[in-house]
Amino acid sequence: MKKLLTYGLCFLMALTCLTGCGGGNQADLRVAVGGDTADLDPAIVDDSITANILAQVYQGLYTLDTDGNVIPNLATDMPEISEDGLTYTIKIKEGTKWSDGETVKASDFVYAWKRAIPTQGYYTQFIWQYIEGTSHMVADEKTGAEIDTPYTTMDELKDFGAKALDDTTIEIKLKAKCAYFTSLLTNTVFYPVREDYLKDNAKDGDLTDSSWGNKSDVPYNGAFKVTSVNTKDEVILEKNEEFYDADKVSINSISFKVMADMDAQTSAFESGEIDFATSCNIDTIKSKEELSEQSWKIDPFVCNYYILINAGDENTNEALKDKDIRNAIGLSVNRDNVLQALGYGDNAYELSGLVPKGIPGATGDFREEQDEVKKLAEYNLDEAKAIMESKGYSKDNMLDLTYKYNDNTMHKNVAQALQASMKEAYINLELVATEKEAFFDERDKGDFELCRHAMTADFIDPMAYLSMYVDKTTLGNTVDDATFESMVNAANALDDVTERMNGLHEAENYLVGEQHYIVPLFGYTEPYLLSSKVTGVTHSPEGHYQLAYAKIAE
């Protein structure tokens, strides 16, 4: 989920283990995850580990199928959209239940969305940037410019643009028409929650507090319910007998075990301690035939990896404000060498734009459409050197730049390949590795010259990526280019699908091929290890897997 990849985000620390299923008993399905979980509150979750747990216990209105198509989940059909594109009416299935036996109502969805906004969770932007009555204009402290800003209390949301017309009908009024809004509704931030439960369990009456999500009696409407939480060790799920499709769920319990070390996960998988390893060393998998035969991956998996160049006002390196220098940086990158250093084999490919493969375009794949016309980023050392020489750089007068990344083997290998490649174009790239939380904090604040970036698709549309560099309210947006923003906005105002996609192609061309704010590197998927005894695990391109209908052979 934009999620900004597992790597991205703040893993909140909390809590002691609650009583629940387990009690020393082995779960039916044992899953190892590569980091701590966040609090299990749909409003604030922005990492793929926690999002995948929530996907097992909640049902949203819509979901994505294996090919990335939006399909109804608890909604009975696709939305009814008004002629002006601003009003969405959605019917939900009658008679679905929460795990405590209460009926799931339209108001449970509306309350969840309204309550989410003041939490200021990352994905609440999918609510307040699109739905009426969720924000107001506030003057920026530095520039004085008016900025659209979300309300910070529920009391301010008196005119919230979503409402329950009755127990099974939701009406949503948008600020502006949005071709991809239904796809946004698949995000975890649009899951329902129970108002009565939150009001009874909010810490000190603070509805923005998320610790309630780790209690053992939270009502859920998905195939499973959480019965025990230790965010740094293990989360245990049990089958939800009130789930509308419970007869088709054969697994009675699931354990999500935190194992940050890849080799530890692999060893645990080999010994039979776990059934599903989600953070693995690809070299280890390739070196052992038995492991290779049990490798499993999300395919298609929509994910990019790129260098973000800080050309913003907060960066004092004037060289990076020169688009020719930025172009030379991109031209200096030998992607073949980067892929070799990565070592992912056919699990990775050279990327020539911000938008990776797997996003629909006008008539086919958005990335492939553009690549057939012209690749927006390619390796050309001679041209890179010529540009640098024209700016006064040489072997005896190198351009000093820093490149920041969070410290792990994958990112280190990529960084070293970049360093060697750029040196040939008179760029002395100093590598700065920090621990994960510090890195993301610095990147979000714009405290870098060059940094690594990667993102799965939060929704299946080019805007999942292009919107990251529209508006300064987005964390880590060092682009801040009015021309790019106007191009994106103009494209999204078009009703014709082909014309809209052509407009978004032009916007990406400006961002990457003309202004060179980013340097695309590669797209990739990561192999998991899944026991051959386990079948029926499904997935969607944004990186979610679904265990509801998995089966385990005796």
Using only C-alpha atoms, the radius of gyration works out to: 24 Å
Q: Helicity, in percent?
A: 25-40%
Distance between the termini: 33 Å
Instruction: Name the average pLDDT.
Output: 92
Shape: globular
**Poorly predicted ranges:** 1-23
By secondary-structure content and strand pairing, the structural class works out as: alpha+beta
With strands numbered from the N-terminus, the spatial order across the biggest sheet is 10-11-12-1-13-21-14
The number of strands is: 25
| Separate helix tally | 17
Largest sheet: 7 strands, mixed
Strand percentage, roughly?
15-25%
Q: What layout of secondary structure does this protein have?
A:
Elements: E1 29-33, H1 48-57, E2 62-64, E3 70-72, E4 80-81, E5 87-91, H2 106-116, H3 125-128, E6 135-139, E7 146-150, E8 162-166, E9 169-173, H4 181-184, H5 195-201, E10 224-230, E11 234-239, E12 253-258, H6 262-271, E13 276-277, H7 282-287, H8 289-293, E14 295-296, E15 303-309, H9 323-331, H10 335-342, E16 348-350, H11 366-373, H12 381-390, E17 399-406, H13 409-423, E18 427-434, H14 436-445, E19 450-456, H15 463-466, H16 482-492, H17 497-514, E20 518-524, E21 528-530, E22 534-535, E23 538-539, E24 545-546, E25 551-552
Parallel strand pairs: 1-12, 1-13, 17-18, 17-19
Antiparallel strand pairs: 2-3, 4-5, 5-9, 6-7, 8-9, 10-11, 11-12, 13-21, 14-21, 15-19, 15-20, 16-20, 22-25, 23-24
Helix pairs in contact: 9-12, 10-13, 16-17
What does this structure look like?
- This protein has about 550 residues and is α+β, with helices and mostly antiparallel strands.
- Helix content is about 25%, strand content about 20%.
- Strands 10-11-12-1-13-21-14 form a seven-stranded mixed β-sheet, sandwiched between helices. Strands 16-20-15-19-17-18 form a six-stranded mixed β-sheet, with helices on both faces.
- Strand 4 and strand 5 form a beta hairpin.
- The longest helix has 18 residues, at about 495-515.
- The chain is globular.
- Mean pLDDT is about 90; it is low at about 1-25.
